Structures are given as structure tokens and as C-alpha cells.
Amino acid sequence: MTYKLIALDLDGTLKSSDKKILPKTKAILQKLAKQGVILVLASGRPTAGLYAEAKELELDKTGGYLLSFNGAKVVDYRTKKTIYQKVYDAKTAHAVYDRAKKYNLAVMTYTDELILTEDDNDKYVIIESEVNHMPIKHIDSFKETVDFSVNKVLLTGEPDHAKRIIDEFKEPYGESLSIYRSAPFFIEVMAQGIDKAASLRMLIEQLGIKQEEVISFGDGYNDLSLIEFAGMGVAMANAVDEVKQRANYITLSNDEEGIYECLKMLNRKGEI
Fold it and tell me: What is the pLDDT of residues 87-122, one digit of tens each?
């Protein structure tokens, strides 16, 4: 089998614990991309939150794709063309805002380049900005400003509070929205049925690549579908147990050049 596409989670996978792409990993990914292997960065981050890593891997030169918001949007990095996206309307976003404020939560959403929020001094909003290299734009009224469909509304609160209210908060929405905690202080509100693997399937169909020609790397629960979908699903040594159990292969950790070690092995075998 010759693999033609590599899908990479970022945090805990491509990025080390100190938030860097390690040198051997960067070098082998750049080499494979130049040889025609397609790289896909697959993350829960907003699209613009993947630009720095895409540029570091030189995807502006070789081409590649950004699968953001856990699969709610897929973008061709070089052309910035949206290949696929799943959104919900402004009216629904406004209702989420109203409910969030009843629970004393900060609220934000995104444009292509900015984080929009009334709560620009909230410490967790600032964390989201720093992680994604995205500026915060203060808005006076969320409901007046957000008059467009959104991929995600992100809510923040103190961890104990978020944990305590999450089930009650999401109860009225039933199956209409996907609402979950992605970090102790983050509550994500997404359209229903969003999944990294479902979006990747749509992309490879457009590219004419078979499922068995895909390698995926991941570490967290939101990578499970990606690991199971790929012809070769690779778990990092630092992955949660469920990801390791479902992977075809467990490599070294994100701090030990785990992606490099796996790709080097496959390269030696002539499989990539």
C-alpha cells in the first residue's frame, strides 16, 4: 500500500507540549509534501487558527488542506477556497447567546480572521485568542453584530461551573445542536453531525483518494473517528486509551518525534 494523504491533529499530536512542530517531524512532512503526499491539518480550532502551522509546513508552496472546527469546515489552504462547511443560522446563535448569559458564561464566535465577543477581558477568551493566533474584536452587541451563519459558538466559564451546568444547559437543544466541553473551561456549540472523518471522506472523494490510502495521527477523543476511518490510524504514545485501543499502530509521543518515527518506518518499507 502506498499512502497518498496524511491527516494530522495539531495539539498533542503535531505540536509538542511546548507548542512547537519538532524539527524531524517538520522536515519529513515537508519532504513528503514536495513528493506529492497531501497533508491535511485536522483540528477543533477555527480555520485561521491553523494558518501558522500550515505556513510553517510550507503548504502555501506544496498545497494542503485545513479541516477546522472538528470538521465543520474544510478549506484549500493555498486558494483559501471553502471545500465544505456545516453551519447554523444567526437566529440559533442568538438563542445560544441568550441562554449562555443566563448561566453567566462568556460568548464568542468567529469571522475568517477574528474572534468576536462582548467579553474581551475574559481570561478564557484571551486563551482562545493566544492558542489560535487570532485577534479579539470587541463588539457592543453579539446579536446585532452576528447576522450571519456560524460554524461554532464557543462559551467559557470557570471549570467547576461549566462542569456543573453543562447537562442542564444543553437539555433544550436535544439533537438539534452538538454541545460538549472541549476543555474544562470551554463549551462548544456546533451544528449536529460534525465529525472529522465525515469531512475527510468528502475531501478524499473530491481528490480521488481511497480510504485505505489515508494515514491519520491523533491523540484525543475528537480524533477517534479519524483514527478509525483511515487505512492506517496512528495513536501517539500520549493519546487517551480509547484512541490507542482503536489505532492500527502506536508511535512515540508528541514530545519524541512520534510522527517522524512512524513516517520514517513507512518510508523504509516503501509504503509512503
Answer: 999 999 999 999 999 999 999 999 999 999 999 999
Q: What is the DSSP letter of 150?
A: B
Cell 495513536 sits on residue: 235
φ, ψ at 107 (rounded to 5°): -130, 135
The size of the chain, in residues, is 272
**Strand (E) or helix (H) holding 155:** strand 152-156
* Residue 203 exposure: Cα atoms within 13 Å on the Cβ side: 36
Is residue 106 within 8 A of residue 155, CB to CB? The reply is yes
Question: Is there a contact between 157 and 188 (Cβ–Cβ < 8 Å)?
Answer: no
How many Cβ atoms from other residues are within 10 Å of residue 29's Cβ?
25
Angle at 254 between CA 76 and CA 237, to 5 degrees: 120
Domains and CATH numbers, the chain: 5-85+194-268 (3.40.50.1000), 90-191 (3.30.1240.10)
Q: Which residues contact 15 (CB under 8 A, 6 or more apart)?
A: 21, 53, 254
- Residue pointed to by grid coordinates 466559564: 157
Q: What is the pLDDT of residues 189-209, one digit of tens each?
A: 999 988 899 999 999 999 999
Please state the pTM of the whole predicted model. 0.90
